[in-house]
Write a structure and sequence with these properties.
Layout lengths: L11 H12 L9 E4 L2 E4 L7 H13 L2 H10 L24 H19 L5 E5 L6 H11 L6 E5 L4 H8 L7 E6 L6 H16 L9 E5 L2 H7 L6 E3 L16 H7 L1 H20 L6 H15 L4 E7 L6 H13 L17 E4 L10 H6 L6 E6 L7 H20 L3 H10 L4 H10 L8 E6 L4 H22 L7 H18 L10 H16 L1
Parallel strand pairs: 3-4, 3-5, 5-6, 6-7, 8-9, 8-10, 10-11
Antiparallel strand pairs: 1-2, 2-11
Helix pairs in contact: 1-2, 5-9, 9-10, 10-17, 11-17, 12-17, 15-16, 18-19
């Protein structure tokens, strides 16, 4: 089946956009800021010109941006390769567009209230992976890093050390196992859940299944697994796994740091949804984030995006955005099944500043490739040491300015001479101190780190991904590459577990290692 989406490079508007991007530059003498949904986004560090702005509007019109945005926000079929909506925005709408959303939210809140009143479940082990894990880790660490009365541990990896470490030293009688899996077939999640159930049984918990909660789009499979119906909370096929933070998946967040945190995140995300739906293109934060990303990746040729949150509490933000962008935009085939002829989704990486400055900022400043950077910082701290926060802010602004302005050879030479070096040595050393400058970046400022501001930030990145997928002509809501690897893993697992099964249809190296691992198991 083909969709009426012309390949990007066949559009005149794309060529005009690309040409304008090449001619544009960072405007160091002006400020381009947008304030919305509690965020302040400064795009002054991205290339700009009036011609580029006009070309972007024409390109988005050719890609039917407004119509496709309405389809997304209205629950139409946006995930065309799987024939379903991508309606995660419905989960945070002030007035839920579906009764089942309200019903499930009320059930979830009742479960949490009952547990809180009884001071039940002193320990929570959250078992999930990918979209069922990163967002919850992020929200719990952001708002519970120094004050939560429940012990919360996360298990994602199939490595047995992960589940063993998570269960160690906990009291099984007062431990809630939260199993989050959209399909309820995820191998890593179900294996880890089985080990947790065995742990409960070994401790003689009277009704071990009553200590297990499932969050899934397939409640029938959770019931077949043994979990009672009243302990199963649903979300739906039209919620993609990496967009599921807004669903019952956030049960662990609510129990760890309160339902008010979850409600605040939903409200912030809804505010960003409204901004995305209504703001003109030139004043639309997600759209401007997307356009900057397309310029940097597909025109200027940057292969990656660095995310630098200058806030210790946002340590898991990089992984969250990494999954969101790379699983969504790691595509090379357009909706017509044709190869995309421009580079798409960049590699996303990073860590919180200031740790990052002592790890890889040297590469960002003077490496031969470099990368655009999203600097994210809170204007106000929530601790009582102003010097710490002022120093943090100073480092964030200074690193950003250094990337923008750079340092010329003449500046570096004058520094060396002023430092007392002889002319010959100064000339030599100055070459090592040159910064190219002009490294594109965006600064996103949150007034405080609140549930509202974090929700708005995450929603902005979600909508950015949608707009980039639209421009590139790819579907940001599927992940067929991951599915292929899962299928291969199932076959290899069968070969490892049954030595009599011949390892076939592999490349030579894979066949060799299947045999090596089987022989090691037999020797053990």
């Amino acid at each position: 089946m083909h969709y009426p989406v012309p390949p990007l490079t066949q559009l005149d508007s794309w060529q005009h956009f690309a040409d304008a991007a090449v001619q544009a530059s960072v405007q160091l003498d002006s400020v381009r800021c947008i304030r919305a949904a509690g965020l302040h986004a400064d795009f002054s560090g991205q290339v700009y010109s009036p011609e580029l702005e006009a070309a972007a509007k024409t390109l988005l019109a050719d890609r039917q941006f407004e119509q496709q945005r309405d389809v997304l926000l209205g629950g139409g079929i946006s995930n065309v390769t799987e024939g379903r909506a991508a309606w995660h925005t419905a989960l945070r709408a002030p007035a839920a567009p579906k009764d089942e959303i309200t019903t499930e939210r009320e059930r979830l809140n009742a479960f949490i209230r009952t547990a809180d009143i009884a001071r039940r479940w002193r320990n929570i082990v959250h078992i999930g992976i990918g979209g069922s894990d990163w967002g919850v880790r992020l929200s719990v660490s952001a708002f519970g890093y120094c004050k939560q009365w429940r012990t919360v541990r996360f298990v994602a990896n199939i490595d047995g050390h992960a589940i063993a470490g998570a269960l160690s030293d906990l009291n099984p009688m007062d431990t809630l196992i939260v199993v989050a899996s959209k399909s309820f077939t995820t191998v890593e999640t179900l294996e880890n859940a089985s080990r947790a159930l065995e742990w409960l049984k070994a401790a003689d918990v009277p009704d071990p299944y009553s200590n297990v909660v499932a969050i899934t789009a397939r409640p029938d499979r959770a019931q077949e697994w043994g979990i009672p119906e009243h302990n199963i909370f649903s979300f739906w096929d039209w919620v993609g796994g990496r967009f599921s933070l807004w669903s019952a998946v956030n049960l662990t967040t609510a129990m760890a740091v309160s339902s008010d945190v979850v409600a605040g995140m939903l409200a912030g995300a809804a505010a960003m949804d409204k901004h995305f739906a209504e703001a003109p293109i030139e004043q639309n934060i997600p759209v401007q984030m997307a356009l900057a990303g397309v310029v940097n990746r597909s025109v200027l040729g940057y292969g990656s995006l660095n995310v630098a949150p200058y806030d210790f509490r946002l340590g898991h933000l990089v992984s969250y955005i990494q999954q969101l962008e790379m699983e969504s935009l790691g595509k090379s085939v357009d909706l017509n099944g044709e190869f995309v002829t421009v580079p798409t989704g960049p590699a996303v990486w990073g860590m919180p500043g200031t740790d990052a400055q002592h790890t890889f900022f040297q590469w960002l400043h003077q490496g031969s490739d470099g990368a655009p950077v999203d600097f994210i910082v809170c204007q106000h701290a929530d601790h009582s040491w102003p010097t710490h926060h002022q120093t943090l802010l100073a480092h964030c602004l200074a690193q950003r300015e250094a990337m923008l302005r750079g340092k010329s050879y003449e500046q570096a030479l004058q520094e060396c001479l002023s430092g007392g070096l002889e002319a010959e040595e100064a000339s030599w050393l100055a070459k090592h101190r040159v910064h190219k400058g002009g490294r594109p970046n965006t600064l996103i400022v949150l007034p405080h780190l609140t549930p509202y501001s974090l929700g708005a930030l995450l929603a902005a990145y979600e909508h950015k991904v949608f707009v980039q997928g639209l421009i590139w002509g790819i579907n940001p809501f599927d992940q067929w590459g991951v599915e292929y690897g899962k299928k291969l893993a199932a076959g290899i697992l069968g070969e490892l577990q049954r030595p009599s099964v011949e390892a076939t249809h592999h490349d030579a190296s894979t066949t060799y290692w299947v045999e090596q691992f089987r022989q090691a198991d037999s020797r053990d």
